[in-house]
Records
---
Amino acid sequence: MQGLGADYMTGGDGDRTHSIRMGADMEASRLESRIKEAEAADKTATACELLRLYLDLGGSKSYFQFLFAEQLRILGRSGEAETIFKDLMALLPAKHAWRVALSLGLLYRDRGEFDKAQATYAECGTLRGESTIPWVYLGGFLASKGDIAEAVKVLTRGLDAEGDRDEVYLNLGNCARAMGDYRTAIQHYSKAIGISPDYELARKALMDVQEALEVREVIRGTTMASLESGK
């Protein structure tokens, strides 16, 4: 990576100051490009070090502060990440803070602090309730801890939001499947596929519950036949 010196120009103090500022802007731009490349390639440690350099050089864009916290979270440095996430939530407007809340919820979930995770996901819903994303995250979290009935309520709210309703239906289908209500699960998975015909997860889940329902009906039929023959 070239240093700022490569961008310096000789001249008066005013020209030099302007040139230094231009050099710093160019350095920041190069760093931003490398950061995005590393993040896209899942090079978490590399992205983290580039972000640290970027911020040490005075970079202050909230997106890169958030990205730094995300890399720290993924690396397992949750204490540092939590501090940055909280600072950003206090500074950013709701239209941006909700995304930070999602990551903070993931951090708490990964640390096993489930009450904090649930509260943070719920706060995300308050900040961005018009989007399906918070409801999918909160509903999925509730389902994962076994609170299926509450998950269904949350996900049902997501059907009135804008966004990926196919994901909402997928998760509703998963909840119905978990409760053994295969017919309702089939309805939800079918609606997800109706929205996104190439939704492979929904198609596999639909085939699964259809077969499970067939097996259940065969077992019941066999059982009934055995009972009747034993009379």
---
Amino acid sequence: MAKSKSEKLKRLVAVQRHLEHMAENDLAMVSRQRAEVLDNLEAAVDAVGSLEPVHQLFSSLYASQITRLTVTDHHLEAMQQVHEQKILRERAKADRLEDNMRDARTDEERVAADDQIYDLVDQKILVDQSQASSKLGRP
């Protein structure tokens, strides 16, 4: 039997929700990476500001590390914004498909109810015709 439009849309909604979930997982991964970079950046800044002689020897190394971590943080921030927008897009698509699915289900239920009413009317007409013909057939 062919699937109804609402069943097809229900499947599409499930797929779209899965895509939304995958985008959320990607965002979580980027957020974790960004948190790690920020922790490393904070440690490097603390090391540059330290008065210990060991850290003062490596100040140029720390400065280049801070620059690299800052660039990485900006890159991850941009990726995070892209993933947030992707989540919003996927969620909007899923919501729109879900609304279409509900509309299709309502239409299908309405058509089924109409068909039941037409069947009842047809049955009533057949009963009335058979009663009328049986009355005419009697002497």
---
Amino acid sequence: MYKNTYKILLLVLTFLVGSSNFVLKASAVVSPKNIYSNYSDSVLMISNESSKGDDLVLNFGTAFSINDSGLLLTSAHLIRKNSSVTDSYGNKLTILAVEWIDEEADLAVIKVNKKVQALPLATSYNTQIGETLTIISNPSGFQNTLTQGVLSSKRNRDNMQVLQYSAPISPGSSGGPIFNEDGQVIGVVQGIYTAANSQNLNFGIPVELLPSKFLQPAIQSKQLASKQSSGSEQMAKVSFYLNQSESTAEDSNYQLLKLLSQMIDQEPEDPFAYLMRGMVKQKMNDYFGALNDLKHGQKMLEKDVQIFSFSQSSGRSKAIQLF
């Protein structure tokens, strides 16, 4: 009897594995070869000169197209008055305007005098730790260099979510697109962590930090749906703990603090999460932490009317070396 049951189970499993509808069948992954062949022409090089003593130093960086009308996304620290852009065929392009810049997030959108095929964008919310990432950039001026690694972590650094990955980068890689396994850009190369004895600690900025007007319609709807779904679940939990009785106040405050910290990790630009966490910390007698969160939340509420300039100081960690 058991032998017959075993044979039947084996036949069923064989049928399922052979079926195209089997739920565990892996989805198609876009190979680095296909990413490069399809999208390398949409990755451009930025260069500029700077003085080092009596010498002039040529600096390199990367930018890539985010729409078909000449808009490029890059790193804010690459934008200077003498910056120039070169396409993958060696043609020099003119920077017509800096459409948007956020030095704190280290992102900028520039417009050039050539229409370039846009790269597909995607939020980083659904990219899991361990997934393969591919980068096309211009390390040390070696144009359109392909590297590959994995998503090592998602971190909250300087009150902003960043992507940590293992794909090799070098000076000149900054501003390069970070592709997920579906061949979509989820981030922008920023730099490496340079503290003593550190190795292969590379960081990028998620593309969802861009203003909505620069995002493609598909990513706008996905971004909104992801935020609403995640936010509604978390706010339901927050409401639950807020309504707990005084007898469990200490435990409720701890749970609230944990939930609000998770909300901030997933949505670092939500000022109300910081303000709420500040009030919870105050209840827990963490006055220094409460003051920091309340100040940061207030600052973010005012950010919408803040005017960014090239001279604005950056809040990035000094240990992050920008490329």
